[in-house]
Amino acid sequence: MSDLILYVKTGCPWCIKVLNLASEKGIEFELRNIADAGVADELIKRGGKRQVPYLVDKKNGAEMYESADIIEYLKKSL
């Protein structure tokens, strides 16, 4: 199981940007799709809103919205 969780929605262009970077860098996520109502509720409890992508880095205790912020974080920390 990965230390990185990424909440996504099928077809989300911002999610695709993060996933493309992950593919280039060999970064693996545990993907959770908010199309599942239970996952959407989980995301809202975690971050406060139903917005994707949302990254959870369990190892470093970081959580964030916004694809640009996630991409910068991944480039710097991994």
Average pLDDT over all residues: 96
Strand tally: 4
**Topology as a string of helices (H) and strands (E):** EHEHEEH
How much helix is in the residues?
Answer: 40-55%
Task: Specify the biggest β-sheet.
Answer: 4 strands, mixed
The CATH class: Alpha Beta
Radius of gyration: 11 Å
| N-to-C CA distance | 17 Å
Continuous helix count: 3
According to CATH, the homologous superfamily is Glutaredoxin
> From the helix content, strand content and strand pairing, which structural class follows?
alpha+beta
State the strand order across the main sheet: 2-1-3-4
Overall 3D form: globular
Low-confidence stretches: none
Number of domains: 1
CATH architectural type: 3-Layer(aba) Sandwich
Strand content: 15-25%
Q: What is the CATH topology assignment? A: Glutaredoxin
Explain the overall architecture.
This protein is of the alpha+beta class and 78 residues long. The chain has a single domain (4-77), classed as Glutaredoxin (3-Layer(aba) Sandwich), CATH 3.40.30.10. Helix content is 45%, strand content 22%. It has a 4-stranded mixed sheet with strand order 2-1-3-4, sandwiched between helices. The two termini are 17 Å apart.
